[in-house]
Amino acid sequence: MIIAIEGIDGAGKNTLVSQLRKELNIPVEVLAFPRYEDSIHAQLAQEALYGRMGDLTSSAYAMATLFALDRHGAKQQLEEASTSSNLLILDRYVASNAAYSAARLGDDAVMDWVFDLEFGRLGLPKPDLQIYLATEVGIAAQRASSREAQDASREKDQYEKDGGLQAATAAAYARLAEANWAGQWIAAVDKGIIIDKVLDLVGE
């Protein structure tokens, strides 16, 4: 089973992942995207987000393609999880590409393009459940700033610094969740509610 946790920067995704690992009494693996330590495509995207790849970030499609290729590099692990009795929790997955791209372009049509690219051409498995951690944008921004202040290695990238982009991405995530894009969604702020619903799903 694959469960993807989605949300804007500072939403608390990593905290939710840790809480789920403690609550679930089955084998759990965790994979975070982008895979900056393991994937050349993720590393190039990161370089671009810190202004070291010229005008690459000006193209939403180019950035989305790099992030998609990063996930394609983990395809074997994803496919094994989709047919295993174990649980793979993803800290971001395909929906993050759809949400950020739609927010950057101001056009939800790119969501279909992302769907076709990642689930179609690249053949990535769809998640069994997608969770949108709908943290209020201002609170998420405060958390991201606090994280940056406490850890010099967590300097904000171009996406994280753009408050307007974060707000637009949150709205795009909400639309994806409402439409059950690429499968079942849970959208909530309260982590306890999310954990209870995941426990119910895993129990089934």
UniProtKB/TrEMBL annotation:
Decide whether keyword Kinase is in the record. Answer: yes
Report what the protein is called.
Thymidylate kinase
Q: What is the superkingdom listed in this entry's lineage?
A: Bacteria
Q: What is its EC number?
A: 2.7.4.9
Q: Which terms does the UniProt entry file under GO BP?
A: dTDP biosynthetic process; dTTP biosynthetic process; dUDP biosynthetic process
Can you list the GO cellular component terms from the UniProt entry?
cytosol
Family per similarity comment:
Belongs to the thymidylate kinase family.
Biological source species:
Corynebacterium ammoniagenes (Brevibacterium ammoniagenes)
Write the record's keywords in alphabetical order, separated by commas.
Answer: ATP-binding, Kinase, Nucleotide biosynthesis, Nucleotide-binding, Transferase
Molecular function as annotated in GO = ATP binding; dTMP kinase activity
Ranges for domain Thymidylate kinase-like come to 5-157
